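Q: What structure does this chain adopt?
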Amino acid sequence: MKLLVIDAQGGGIGRQVVTAIRKNIPDAAITAVGTNTAATTAMLKAGADNGATGENAVIVGVRKADVIIGPIGIVIADSLLGEITPAMAAAVGQSSATRILIPVNHCDNIVAGTQGLAMKTLVEDVLSILRQLQ
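A:
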């Protein structure tokens, strides 16, 4: 299964996701795409196999992925402080890959029902979903 982890800003969410996947599903093929170099670098340091940066990397990466993982903002144009371009959001949304979206309440996007869950709990849910997909 080809996993694509997308993150923005400092890559903190993506770093936690990559770390957890690498620890629990060691043979997973993980590609990290950051909207900026800081995000990409954080995910590569966490153990992603490959990494790329920017809009075109997102557009190309989503075509090759079986599963896309990232904060919910990756499907909302202009979110994550403007780092998600309309083209990125459309590419993620139109991809045939399964999307695992992490419901974080950042940057004026508030997801009802999340009750402020800790990131650790959300990452554990990502792992549970990945195991069901295998």
